Predict the 3D structure of the following.
Amino acid sequence: RPLSPHLQVYDMLQMTSALSISHRISGVVWVAGVLVMAWWLIAAGSGGGAFGAVQWFLGSFLGVLFLMGLTAAAWFHTLAGIRHLAWDAGWGYDIPTVYKSGRAVLVGTAVLTAITWLALLISW
């Protein structure tokens, strides 16, 4: 038996648990984004053929989906991190505020991701 609470004690449909787990997952997605960025930079230094392959992948449907997911993960992780900073400062521990800030993180993620991609498509 585990000595500390594990996954079986958490209600995954509860906003606090779901956002906490999602915050950790978005950090892992960031690592994937850093690896793709390193791949892109190494390919840029390697020559036109390697760089063209990376650009082809990032411009493909799967690559654009990955970049959209990475954008959403970036905004989610940032907003959830700001929420955690507020908690570290002692603000927002009461249940109504916890749920209000959780909804704000989710709505903010959707809105900021959409604005980011809209700006990208307009400037492209």
